[in-house]
């Protein structure tokens, strides 16, 4: 069988592309290296703009609330000694969820639209035979790389140092509102000299009942990031909970703020792999959605032109 498109990587942008292509009638194969979805370095915040964008492509994110996600109606942003508090309009909200929950949800939308998924299969290379691509024994007319913040071609040279993120899942009875997210942008001058950057920030986001995602974003990777994360956790988070317990140890990874293809990729690229993540706004998921939509539109146009 020759697929219209093979998508390598089944995170947010990969599944969005798979969903959009499949519902137009294209044959889509999505390949994920992990045997099943797990947690990723992500705050788990699905902004109201993300929810609206999903609604425009007929995906109802409200279903996540029936899968244990948190409805977020308020936000507090601390910066330069001030606190900006805001409330969503009565008919608006954002969602806090685990990435595992969100990834499963999006993959189900794509599979329901007709996309085929293969889990636990690692793709080392993509070869070309005439006008077709060969991926792990599968042929396709088009290939999309959605593999996240990592290199696919060992010869690719990054033009700058990627941003870095650390996140952890904790449980505990909170002393703060469970329908509010918290962002701390005023941490720069509190950190050791090597960690100071006005754009580094710390977050506390509810993702389920008594479950929170706490994490920290660094504009660029630097020394002692885990020590800085621990410092901010002790300063901002620990005292806000009774009997806080870690259910997923803090983990870190590069963020998709640079083009990991190095500009030499002959395939379509999307999501963190293409450098669409914006570490300054906390809306990495929104950018992944938009990137997935954009590349799906590009592939759609090329496939239709080839058939005409």
From TrEMBL:
- State the SUPFAM superfamilies in the record: FAD/NAD(P)-binding domain
Which Gene3D superfamilies does the record associate with it?
Answer: FAD/NAD(P)-binding domain
- Annotated TM spans: none
Every copy of the FAD-binding domain together lies at: 4-129
- Name one molecular function that GO assigns to this entry: FAD binding
List the Pfam families: FAD_binding_3
Q: What protein is this chain from? A: FAD-binding domain-containing protein
Q: Which organism is it from?
A: Lacrimispora algidixylanolytica
């Amino acid at each position: 069988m020759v697929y219209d498109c093979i998508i390598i990587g089944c995170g947010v942008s990969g599944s969005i592309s798979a969903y959009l292509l499949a519902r137009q009638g294209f044959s889509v194969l999505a390949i994920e290296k992990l045997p099943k979805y797990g947690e990723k370095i992500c705050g788990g915040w699905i902004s109201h703009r993300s929810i609206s964008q999903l609604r425009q492509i007929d995906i109802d994110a409200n279903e996540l609330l029936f899968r244990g996600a948190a409805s977020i109606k308020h936000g507090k942003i601390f910066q330069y000694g001030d606190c900006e508090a805001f409330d969503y309009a009565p008919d608006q909200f954002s969602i806090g969820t685990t990435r595992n929950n969100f990834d499963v949800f999006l993959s189900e939308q794509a599979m329901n639209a007709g996309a085929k998924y293969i889990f636990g299969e690692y793709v080392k290379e993509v070869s070309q035979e005439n006008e077709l691509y060969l991926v792990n024994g599968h042929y396709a007319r088009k290939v999309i790389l959605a593999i996240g913040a990592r290199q696919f071609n060992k010869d690719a040279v990054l033009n700058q140092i990627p941003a870095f993120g650390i996140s952890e899942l904790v449980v505990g009875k909170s002393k703060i509102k469970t329908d509010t997210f918290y962002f701390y942008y005023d941490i720069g001058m509190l950190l050791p000299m090597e960690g100071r950057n006005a754009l580094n920030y710390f977050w506390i986001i509810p993702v389920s009942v008594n479950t929170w995602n706490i994490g920290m974003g660094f504009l660029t990777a630097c020394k002692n990031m885990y020590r800085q994360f621990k410092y901010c956790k002790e300063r901002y988070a620990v005292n806000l909970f009774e009997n806080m317990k870690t259910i997923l140890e803090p983990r870190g990874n590069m963020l998709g703020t640079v083009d990991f293809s190095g500009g030499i990729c002959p395939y379509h690229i999307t999501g963190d792999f293409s450098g669409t993540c914006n570490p300054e706004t906390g809306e990495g998921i929104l950018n992944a959605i938009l990137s997935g939509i954009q590349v799906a539109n590009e592939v759609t146009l090329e496939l239709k032109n080839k058939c005409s």
